[in-house]
Amino acid sequence: MAKVSTYLNFTNQTEEAFNFYKTVFGTEFEGNGINRFGDMPPQPGMPPMAEETKKLVLHVSLPILGGYMLMGSDAPPEMGFTITMGNNVYINLEPDSKEDADRLFNALSADGQIEMPMTDMFWGAYWGSCKDKFGVKWMVNYVKK
Fold this sequence. Notes:
By secondary structure, the chain is of the alpha+beta class. The chain has a single domain (3-142), classed as Roll (2,3-Dihydroxybiphenyl 1,2-Dioxygenase, domain 1), CATH 3.10.180.10. The protein has 3 helices and 8 strands, in the order βαβαβββαβββ.
C-alpha cells in the first residue's frame, strides 16, 4: 500500500532529535535502527569520509501516530549540504509501482528543480528528490515488494 512520511534533515543533530522523538511517542526505530554514513558502501568519485562523518546518521525511521512515519538524516556541510530551517523537510512518497514513482516525480519536478534524478539506489530502492515550482521538497522512494 502506498504511503507518505515526513523526512527531516539536521546538521549533526539527527540522533539527538530522534532519541527525543522516540521518548515523546514511546515507539522504537524501524528496521536496523540507526544507519550511519560509515555503513554506506563507497560510491564512485566519492572522496574519503572523515571518521566523525562516518558516525553521523544516514537514515533513521520512527513510527509516530496512526502509522505515520517520521524519517531523518544528518546533512553534513563537508558533503555539500547547507541546512537552513525551512529547507530541512521533505515529503516522502512511497508509491506502489515504479511507473507511479516516475509519474509523481515527473509531475512534481516540472518547472521545479531536480536534486537527484530517479535512479536505482544501493539500499534497494528506486529513488529521487526534487523541489517543486512552489519550493516544496519531495522524495520519491519506490521499493519493489
